[in-house]
Write a structure and sequence with these properties.
single chain; binds flavin-adenine dinucleotide; 473 residues; FAD/NAD(P)-binding domain; elongated; four-stranded parallel β-sheet; six-stranded mixed β-sheet; alpha/beta; 2 domains
């Protein structure tokens, strides 16, 4: 099969019958075998087939899978619709003007430039035909011997997709910059263009929906921005009067942590000046605020940090999905009926000891490395091994000197957890330059409360409302 670019997964000269026999063997569950490594084409008088591994997604799953195959006798094509790998755990720092986009992202092409067996393509995958073993993309159609799908997840608005424009979520750099724009603009509008105290209060009320780690991070940091960073920068408004309201539908924030850590997180948030409202289910969002049942909360800025929906690519496999659209994979992380297709990271659903493997970066990285090992085992004719997630603990930051850490037997909160959070996040950032810059920005911000990236960008100039000349004295 040829694509727009004329690329195909297998060499054109590969014997058709051999490929057919291979496919039949795969369909019947036999191990997939390839040309024996070590024997040259000359000695066997037939071309050695170099298996083609197509990886979709250059996030934690896709990037680490490609890296784990760096010494493997395979040819890899990695496709991503973005040209950069994004360190999502620090997105909230871009959204709250603490870091610049380039400090938490790196071009995938640069990260993999020394790995000779991989080609990186900027392309969006638009279809998968698992029976034909092809994927279609904006860069053409590709055949594959092994496919690794790692396209992650995005927000779910629980059937209210119309809320998306009113309450942006945080998943990409574009989302983070839009949130930054709305937050900084809200202070400007309150200063220049809010004639009544009610309107000023609405501009200075920031509602975050969802009390998971992202909601908690956003709320804590926004409180710091309002109560310290911009506290002395305005003449009409008092930014320290801003309300930061965190709404959570169930009875505690950080529900994946223990009840003790949830309670401590709530206390730390309140100390930072966040109003934490639990058992508060949002029933409506409009440009003027949110409804919680009968109650009305006037707020011009609403941010969404609840609900996850898996990337739509899983639907094209014809495999069973869970309620969030994640692919229910077999224990070796392949798709039922298609041992050559692996799904990893946030797109995969696998239960371990009665609980789903969490949608976290370490899980995606471990799955990526495990899949690379299973591909090599398959190529050698060895049986695959089931995946087992090793939980090394989880951390959530809340704000300055405030975090919680669940390290299995040890639970930490406050300053020690916060330092642990900083060290781990800096360690996992891609590239020395980014690590250095982020540490520098944080140290500067810690000492001064200043945030380096307080720029309002992205809004059409006509939409930035300036004060009427008459209102100036
Ligand atoms: C705001 C936020 C904070 C987080 N904080 C933490 C944290 O503190 N700790 C932690 O462990 N985890 C955290 N996570 C979760 C963690 O980031 C994810 O678990 C991890 O990124 C999953 O990796 P992945 O490879 O499955 O998907 P992703 O990293 O999301 O990568 C998916 C990639 O696929 C690409 N893609 C998608 N669709 C297509 C397509 N059709 N064609 C081509 N390319 C496509 C995307 O561009 C993207 O590069 C956070 C997530 C978010 C959103």
């Amino acid at each position: 099969m040829k694509g727009a670019s004329g690329r195909t997964g297998r060499p054109k000269h590969a014997p058709r019958r051999a490929r057919f026999a291979q496919r039949r063997a795969d369909e019947h569950g036999s191990p997939i075998t390839f040309g024996e490594p070590g024997r040259s084409p000359k000695s066997r008088k037939e071309p050695v087939h170099v298996p083609h591994v197509v990886i979709v997604g250059g996030g934690f799953g896709g990037l680490y899978a490609a890296k784990a195959l760096r010494n493997a006798p395979v040819r890899i094509t990695l496709l991503d619709r973005k040209n950069h790998h994004l360190f999502q755990p620090l997105l909230y720092q871009v959204a709250t003007a603490g870091l610049n986009p380039a400090e938490i992202a790196a071009p995938i092409r640069r990260v993999l430039r020394d790995q000779r067996n991989v080609q990186v393509l900027l392309a969006e995958v638009t279809g998968i035909d698992p029976d034909e073993r092809t994927i279609s993309s904006t860069a053409g159609t590709f055949g594959y011997d092994f496919l690794i799908l790692a396209t992650g997840a995005s927000h779910s608005y629980f059937g209210h997709d119309d809320w998306e424009a009113l309450a942006p979520g945080l998943k990409s750099l574009e989302d983070a910059l839009e949130i930054r724009r709305r937050v900084l603009l809200a202070f400007e509008k309150a200063e220049c263009c809010a004639p009544t105290p009610e309107e000023r209060a609405a501009w200075l009320t920031f509602v975050i929906v969802g009390g998971g780690p992202t909601g908690v991070e956003l709320a804590g940091t926004l409180a710091e921005v309002a109560h310290h960073t911009v506290a002395n920068d305005f003449r009409v408004i008092d930014p320290t009067a801003a309300r930061i309201v965190l709404l959570e539908g169930i009875d505690r924030v950080l529900p994946t942590y223990s009840e003790l850590l949830s309670a401590r997180a709530k206390r730390q948030l309140e100390r930072l000046g966040v109003e934490v409202r639990t058992n508060a289910k949002v029933t409506g969002i409009d440009p003027e605020g949110v409804s919680i049942g009968e109650e009305r909360l006037a707020a011009k800025t609403v941010l969404w940090a609840a609900g996850v929906r898996a990337s739509p690519l899983g639907q094209w496999l014809g495999a069973p999905l869970d309620r969030a659209g994640r692919v229910k994979v077999t224990p070796d992380l392949s798709v039922p009926g298609h041992p050559e297709v692996f799904v990893i990271g946030d797109l995969a659903f696998l239960e371990q000891d009665g609980r789903p493997v969490p949608g976290l970066a370490p899980a995606a990285i471990q799955e990526a490395r495990h899949t690379a090992r299973n591909i090599l085992r398959t190529m050698k004719g060895e049986p695959r091994r089931p995946f087992r997630y090793v939980d090394k603990g989880s951390l959530a930051t809340i704000g300055r000197n405030a975090a919680v850490a669940d390290l299995g037997r040890v639970e930490l909160s406050g300053f020690v957890a916060w330092v642990a959070w900083i060290l781990i996040h800096v360690f996992f950032l891609i590239g020395f330059r980014n690590r250095f810059l982020v540490l520098f920005e944080w140290a500067f911000s810690y000492l001064t409360y200043e945030r380096a990236a307080r720029l309002i960008t992205g809004a059409p100039p006509s939409k930035v409302v300036l004060p009427e000349p008459a209102s100036r004295r």
